[in-house]
Design brief:
The chain has 11 helices and 14 strands. The protein has 316 residues and is an alpha/beta fold. It folds into 3 domains: 99 residues, Arc Repressor Mutant, subunit A (Orthogonal Bundle), CATH 1.10.10.10; 76 residues, Periplasmic binding protein-like II (D-Maltodextrin-Binding Protein, domain 2, 3-Layer(aba) Sandwich); 99 residues, D-Maltodextrin-Binding Protein, domain 2, CATH 3.40.190. Helix 1 packs across helix 2. The longest helix is centred in the N-terminal third of the chain and has 21 residues. 24% of the residues are buried.
């Protein structure tokens, strides 16, 4: 049992000490349900049964005088009270585990599997150096790369379907952490013999050209189109593809042009066949990030993987 004693400012017969008793195991269950947002998955994680987890939640509801979790189609949704108390409970449990179960992660002997969501552009940058590093430091560790459209990364992390997401990710949610790995910028790419290479590209020429758009979602619009609409302009997107690796080859063998991130061209086999120039409009840089869930924040294996990725990024 955890005995929590909170003394009032004046300890007397009218103001007795406040004493709360909560079974530590109940807080472990609470942490698991908050992490998974699903009673069944939490039970599997704790190697127990769903009725046992439900029973523990009922005891917690009585102790905290709050529903804590509300049923939703995907599992459960935490109440504001549950969200408010999770961080101190989670941190407290992590400290207790560190003291009572000081297990150390050894990459040299580990056989863990990490699942990372990323697009083909990110995979082309990271796959080889990451595999080479793992072969030296952690030969037993496995990697699973799964496709990501950036917008779906938070949901995949929330549902514990991936360990990390990497890319030009959208703003992080409260339960998610992120770190910028590097920045990139957009350029306008076209074949070296393209008619538009003869002089500095103007906005009018850019708009009147036929464009290729890389769109992971399949939508035939991008940030360039939003900027152009603000100027009352519209371009023709002749072709859309959902893979960065396809774009350089198409551009090198057609009269299409594209606003594309510099690194995806720089690392392409067709880099020498392409002419790169500045975009004729202002735009923000690309912040490439990795994102993970709070539940992995203090996981030593996860911390090691994140540190390895950050180190690799310094050499890209």
């Amino acid at each position: 049992m955890i005995n929590i004693n909170v003394m009032t400012k004046k300890h007397d017969a009218m103001n007795p000490p406040l004493k709360i008793e909560i079974d530590l195991n109940l807080l472990v269950v609470f942490d698991a349900v908050m992490a998974e947002l699903n009673v069944t998955r939490a039970a599997e994680k704790l190697s127990t049964t769903q009725p046992a987890v439900s029973k523990a939640l009922n005891r917690l509801r009585r102790a905290f005088k709050d529903d804590l979790f509300i049923k939703v189609p995907s599992g459960v949704k935490p109440t504001p009270k549950a969200i408010a108390i999770w961080t101190p409970i989670r941190n407290g449990l992590a400290d207790i585990r560190q003291v009572t179960q000081p297990t150390l992660f050894d990459p040299a002997t580990s056989t863990l599997t990490f699942t990372i969501a990323l697009n083909d552009y990110m995979a082309s940058l990271f796959a080889l150096p990451l595999v080479q590093q793992l072969s030296q430091e952690a030969p037993g560790i496995n990697l699973r790369f799964v496709p990501s459209m950036n917008i779906d990364a938070p949901a995949l992390l929330e549902q514990s379907e991936i360990d990390l997401a990497m890319g030009a990710l959208f703003a992080s949610k409260p339960r998610l952490q992120s770190q910028t790995l590097f920045t990139d910028h957009y350029v306008c790419a076209m074949r070296k013999q393209h008619p538009l290479t003869k002089r500095k590209l103007t906005l009018d020429q850019f708009v009147r050209a036929d464009h290729l758009l890389i769109t992971l979602t399949g939508e035939a619009t991008g940030f360039i189109d939003r900027i152009l609409r603000e100027k009352g302009l519209q371009r023709r997107i002749m072709l859309t593809v959902n893979q960065f690796s396809l774009a350089p080859a198409i551009l090198a063998n057609s009269d299409l042009i594209a606003a594309i991130n510099y690194r995806s061209v720089q690392h392409s086999h067709f880099a020498k066949a392409l002419h790169l120039t500045e975009l004729p409009l202002d735009h923000d840089p690309i912040h490439v990030r990795m994102m993970w869930h709070d539940r992995k924040q203090r996981d030593t294996a996860h911390e090691w993987l994140r540190s390895l990725i950050v180190e690799l990024c310094t050499h890209l």
